[in-house]
Amino acid sequence: MSQPSAVIFDVGRVLFEWDLRHLFAKLIADEAELERFVTTVITPEWHFQSDQGRPLAEMIAERIAEYPEHARLIHAYASRFTETIPGPVAGMVDLVARLDAAGVPLYAITNFGHEFWQMFRPTQPLFDRFADIVVSGSEQLAKPDPAIFRLALDRFALAPHQALFVDDNPDNVAAAAAMGIAAHRFVDAATLERRLGALGLL
Fold it and tell me: CA 177: distance to chain centroid?
């Protein structure tokens, strides 16, 4: 079987840092209260509904009804979401640029809310290097559902063996591997660079 010739990236915690705390630490001074808020009110698990395609307006209205005392903070989640993404993961902008310069086709499959992606994508010229990006919230399919991988491969015109998939989430990596896609669990840019070199992509 041939070596992969294209790379499919995850976005959050692979290309860009992401944590709800980056926003809410600006709004909640007490550290214990911050932790309580991001583990009970605006949590990664609750946020995943956006990644799955649920309309943001529905999510916000429902959460404010449940936690009216936190209405200001819940609205901030909706309007200031890009502040949960402080910048690129160390070394990754350079690595993507080198792959692009080497002529390696670049793609992404990201669990990202549709409305949030519309806010974030225009701020990041890095994505101009990508031939296509599948956004879970726009498709109403999210990793690790095999359906989003099938959709992406079809859209990218790739057979499974032609791609290396890079993601930090072990469930997503396992789902890709089960479909015959070469998969790399992301830890840091240096480790990924070594894998890319071993595959002849760099």
Answer: 18
Q: 6-17+87-198, which class in CATH?
A: alpha beta
The residues facing 55 across adjacent strands are none
Alpha-carbon separation of residue 193 from 132, 159, 197, 198 (angstroms)? 22, 23, 6, 9
Q: How far are the Cα atoms of 103, 117, 130, 156 from residue 50, in angstroms, in the given order?
A: 34, 10, 23, 24
Name the token pair of 143: 């990793």
Domain boundaries, the chain: 6-17+87-198, 20-84
CB 30 within 8 A of CB 98: no
Look up the pTM and report it: 0.96
91-122 pLDDT, tens digit each: 999 999 999 999 999 999 999 999 999 999 99
Q: Strand pairing partners for 108?
A: 9, 133
Q: How confident is the model at residue 1 (pLDDT cuts 50, 70, 90)?
A: low
Structure tokens at 37: 């808020």
Residue with tokens 């402080």, as numbered in its chain = 86
pLDDT above 70 covers a percentage of the chain that reads 100
